[in-house]
């Protein structure tokens, strides 16, 4: 009440006697007060909006980058920051870290692991030794990893160790934007870089067989690469697809959670996913190189059913000597990443590598 009366007293110094006038004045004052509070409301809102815009600006600018991140997950690192330049500390003691430039201004972090029969000889050797050893006639396998993290992820090191144990060189690359590689990932540049690396490996190994291993997202890069090279008149010596998906749009994760999050993502990221296809299902019909599918029955991210469909599609254009599929029982619990743990894997891969040799 006091508040209401006070403005009346100050309004014009008049002695107010009529209760009617008093009432009226009070109303006027209330209106005035209402206007003032509206005024302050808008000032405050305006200031708030300005602050919000000011804070949001950098985020809005980053939006395309954030969306890209939600597609490729290239900025998601392991909880520990690995030193990618010291692979020996990560259980790869016959490995050297190198950087190659597929084009000016782009540097890709790559590990070169030599066949593990050479591990002792490799101790303390420099990059020139590693580079020379690439020409020793052993097959070379380019390892193209899946989404998230870097070439230092445990299951990736696991695969590299298996490949090295069967006498292969491994080139394990971090795509643009991943790990210590520069640039930004897109389907086109990932494919371009893998094509470039295949050609580099062919040239620097003196023509040894160069196979491509693609896991998950890497399976898409691998088949794109094989098709792109075919268009350039080069038949890849062999492709191994671990946990391959049908294509980036039609992927059907097995588990409910991943299917749900994938559906949401597809709705939100329509545009960004629009330029990401990785058409494995189409590519395998075009490919004419030896092809091995590896899939775990309990893979929760890429269904066995999709892999089987692609295997059948590949069989419709090539015979069963060139196209194979090995599945792993669900009871083993390998899921999407764990195939490297299987004691049969070295023999399976060795067998495939030998077959590709016979067929070439
Ligand atoms: C180095 O790696 C090889 C092959 O993986 C392994 O057999 C050997 O025990 C390792 N040596 C050391 C000292 O870690």
TrEMBL record:
Gene3D superfamilies: alpha/beta hydrolase. InterPro entries: AB_hydrolase_1, AB_hydrolase_fold. Keywords: Membrane, Transmembrane, Transmembrane helix. The gene is LOC115560141. The chain crosses the membrane at residues 39-60. Residues 139-244 form the AB hydrolase-1 domain. SUPFAM superfamilies: alpha/beta-Hydrolases (SSF53474). This is Si:ch211-117n7.7. Pfam families: Abhydrolase_1. It comes from Gadus morhua (Atlantic cod).
